[in-house]
Amino acid sequence: MRRDLPMILIRAIVGFVFLVEGILKFIHPDELGAARFEHIGLPFPHLLAPFVGGVEIVGGAAIMFNIFAGDAALLLMIVIVTALISTKAPILFGRQLGPFTLIKLPHYGLLSFLHEARLDLSMLVGAVAVLIDSGVRVGRRRPWYQSRGL
User: Fold this and answer.
1) By the 8 A CB rule, do 44 and 38 touch?
2) Does residue 64 contact residue 19 with C-beta atoms inside 8 Å?
3) How far apart are CA 98 and CA 74, in angstroms?
4) For residue 100, what are the β-bridge partners?
5) For residue 100, is it within any domain?
6) Nearest-5° angle of CA 124, CA 118, CA 58?
7) C-alpha angle with apex 74: 70 to 75, nearest 5 degrees?
8) What is the pLDDT at residue 117?
């Protein structure tokens, strides 16, 4: 048990954060759901926001309860990378990036990007840890890291 505790803690916080963020997309659609997706510049915000919220809820719960956790982590990594590109990359470059708007900040560049993206980056690294620990199970008979060639 003691040996598994670090991964249990990572699963708990990563799963919890995604679960809560997914729920908030439904509770506060004007701030965190479809209206925010539209403001950011994402296509089909009224369809995409509930879909992403559902993925975050189901994926967060799957990670917390270690049920297809690696598969859930892979889906959530796609969500978080999309969030980084659409909301944080404009801060890094200091300008609008394609359809993605630039929020008003006192500073732009690498340090501002790292500050604004700290939670996203933490969730990305946590999801990678879950993926490595659990592996992808859908469509496979054994986790990817137990393949014969490794």
Assistant:
1) no
2) yes
3) 25
4) 97
5) yes
6) 40
7) 120
8) 95
How confident is the model over 39-54, as pLDDT tens digits?
888 889 999 999 999 9
**Residue 115 is encoded by which pair of tokens?**
């500050």
Q: How many Å apart are CA 56 and CA 73, to the nearest integer?
A: 10
Quickly tell me which residue has 């990563």 as its tokens: 14
Show the tokens assigned to 149.
Answer: 């060639």
In a domain, 118, yes or no: yes
Global pTM? 0.84
Of residues 33, 38, 64, 37, the one with CA closest to residue 130: 64
Token pair for residue 106?
């006192």
Q: Among residues 79, 96, 92, 104, which one has the least CA distance to residue 22?
A: 79
Q: Is residue 144 part of a domain?
A: no
Residues 6+ apart with CB under 8 A from 10: 126, 129, 130
Q: Which residue has the tokens 């003691």?
A: 2
Looking at the structure of the chain, the number of domains it has is 1
Which one, of 84, 86, 60, 85, lies nearest residue 73 by Cα? 60
